[in-house]
Fold this sequence. Notes:
34% of the residues lie in helices and 19% in strands. With 393 residues, the chain is α+β, with helices and mostly antiparallel strands. It has two domains: 13-157, Creatinase/prolidase N-terminal domain (Creatine Amidinohydrolase, Chain A, domain 1, 3-Layer(aba) Sandwich); 162-392, Creatinase/methionine aminopeptidase superfamily (Creatine Amidinohydrolase).
Amino acid sequence: MKVWMVLDLMTPENEFSKRLKNVRAKMEMRRIEVLVIYSASGSLRFGQRGHVMYISGYEPYFGHTMMILPLDEDLSPLLEIDASGYFPSESTWIENVKPAGDHIRDLKEYLREVRLEKAKIGLVGEYSMSSSLYAGLVSEFGRSRIEVASDILESERVVKSEYEVQCIKKACEIAGEGIEAAAKFARVGVSEGEIVSEIERVCRITGSQFFPHYTMVSSGRARNHVDWWWYCRERKLEQGDPWNLDFGTMYKGYCCDVARPFSLGAPSEKQGNVFQVLVQALEAAQRATREGVLASEVDRAASEVLEEAWGGDWMGIGHGVGLEVHEWPFVGWHKIVYDKAYRDMKLKTNMVISIEPQVTLPEVGYMQIEDVFRVTKRGCEVLTDVPREIIET
């Protein structure tokens, strides 16, 4: 089978070769003959867009997309694109491409064409499917032939290649330009929305393809305002205001996530003291981060610092970063026991995580610090390059 149809892929060919080899090895171990990989278009929830993109190169734009990957390397995979019909051929190595259609019918026809009518089917991205589609697949092919296998792609995506790490690092560099732009632009009378616009303008020029979650600028001390940080836009900065920036950029499909507190004018002593606690929590988590450590241990290291300072029950100190801005491993979200996506994981070399301690207090408003790290055997490497300080504007 001719695999590489084009040479101008955004992701290098050898990346897809390694991914396919690893995924098929896991399929073989599970005796899965066909893997149905399903993705929705971009979303703030984990794993919606990335599965099909990771293995095919094609990014869902509008609606859902499906890839059928046979275990047999001599059989051609099928890519069914999303309903937008937008399809740059350079985005994928797959030759067998169909427009959006009836997923169940198309899967049935594919299995008949390749003579795998009785094959065991693994489903990846079942959490992106509608309940009617999932039920229809089970009804059509039988529960005994279908196995939920999202962990096959999740376990591949969670450990990054050097190519992926460098893409994330480049996204972090672009974000650094956005932080500098925010510091130069902020002044009395400028609205939160205007700062967001300036950050995104500069980052676009510098190379960001997209912003994987809201660019969040929240200012002032009023809790009924800063608690809605993802919607903050209209408030105008006043002299002495604390304000916070939390945002990410995207380079070649890969995301970063970074946050820093700012002050319009010199920060108060209280702001400085609160920020030092957040830095101590971040550094405690950073010291705990290395291969073989559970993500919950990293969370605990930061949470102990926060609990000592302010009491309370802290959780969710960070998350994995990759094709999604929030993906595996989730650091501190293991308390959500009803969703396996948030399960506790042992860290492995070349996992990429963010650590983001944050607090809201009457004297300082909403304050946060967030950096991105690559896990190594004996520690971690910081991928963000932004000073750990309250940025005075």
